Batch of 3 targets.
Target 1
Amino acid sequence: MNTAKPLAFLNGGGAMGELIQKKDWSKSPLGLPETWPKSLQTAVSILLNSQFPMFVWWGEDLITIYNDAYCPVAGEKHPDLLGKSGREGWAEIWPDLDPLVESVFSGKTTSSEDQPLYMNRHGFVEETYFTFSYSPVWGDTGKVEGLFCACIETTGKLQAARRLEESERNLRATI
């Protein structure tokens, strides 16, 4: 457990800021937060202070750091997802994500609207939909060092639209 003084880039970070501060990062490829590159500290500060679900995957291992608003997306994967490789944490949807991640690490921003993802976040695989953008985070060396994601779950919106369409079909059939 890290009991060092609070780090400025975690200010305003809510529960996840506290969890990042308390986590033992000594065995992580990232090392201790006070040694993280400025670009990672800045990305983490931005996401922690947002009310939209966001995360960063950092380095070759795609180490996951996310904000409070992302916790419902993570479901039962939280809090173990913090500090875990994105490949491992989201293994069930990795075939869908891998091409997008590869594109980002080559320097291209990607976005997806109402992307279907069959996620296991509550102990079973469920059909979900997300609108999200993956952006490269450039490091001090001029290379892409990480991926920044802002996302919103659109499952409820799409399910409501399906129910409305079905209701309209049923009404037409009745008439």
Note: The radius of gyration is 18 Å.
Target 2
Amino acid sequence: LFIAGPAPAQDEGRTLVLHVDNYARLPSDVLARAEREAARVYEAAGVRVVWIHGDDEAHRDAGGRHLVVLLLDTEMMYRKTWADRIADDVLGTAARGTDRAYVFTQRVIERALLSGHEAAQLIRRVMAHEIGHLLLHDSGHSASGIMRATLSFRTNILATFTKPQADEILMALNR
């Protein structure tokens, strides 16, 4: 016998609800591609991702862990990097205490242009990486995968979390 109803609580524990503020005014198609690819990184770890934009009320009450992703415009980026003394080569940062991941969009776009990669591809990598910092206890950096300390342009293969990182993320989401 099957009864329709709300999803089991364990599914909520594997859901990541990401509230996106697109201050950089990225075109919707670029942002959609970046989000799709970032979601694939988390899906490979067993995590379902729900994206919420601005005042979208449709998923505000979605169960799961809620985090904020801020795609900063150039002026906001300069203020943030100056105030926090962030080096010029850093593409994003995460603030665990506020559950906010910051993407320095102008820097990412410039890096994409210099490297010949699509902006959406690099934005995806930076978003997934910084969100990872919010979910992992230590620095979260690894020698390979999405949590490398430096951005790798060597491959177009989807970089994912290591098995221990994926396990830690699932544990963090189940708290």
Note: The two ends are 31 Å apart (CA to CA).
Target 3
Amino acid sequence: MTAIIDYDTGNLRSVADALRRAGAEFTLTADPALLRGADKVILPGVGEASSAMSQLRERGLDTVIPSLTQPVLGICIGMQLMCLSSEEGDARCMGIFPTQVLRLPATAADGARLKVPHVGWDTVDMLRGPLFEGIDAQTYVYYVHSYAPRLCDAAIAATDYGMRFSAALARDNFFGTQFHPEKSGAAGARILLNFLNL
């Protein structure tokens, strides 16, 4: 059974739909006992980092999540909350991944203006690890974000948009994607299936 953490942020339905398409059994829960007993755990999220962290703290999940020993996948803000901190709302996060989350720049290196938030399809490269088995470099995935984690040793994929950032992270049993695999077509479905098969 896969547990999707329900902490009053958006995006639960699209993640649930993606797991349903994958044929996975899942439950939506914020119960620490159910999370500890699940085979896999997914921390989705859409919204603002500091308020999302407050929601986790109110439920005591800010200490439960880092203590989990099964595979855990953070998606978008879910991954950002697993980093050290976020510039969004000056949030102190869970510290699972050794990097900070920064606001995307509105200007490219060549001076061109960039739209922030970064919305739409973009490529990932520098792919490594089991999450990306069967996925080619320069595969397109779907993004909706204004903040992203700095590149660090835990990065298992990268994307360029105003800066080069960690598109995915992994450390021990914890994984994260800045993009939305549940909205990334066949490639995203494969990434989710890879996670479910860990």
Note: Residues 185-196 form the longest helix (12 residues).
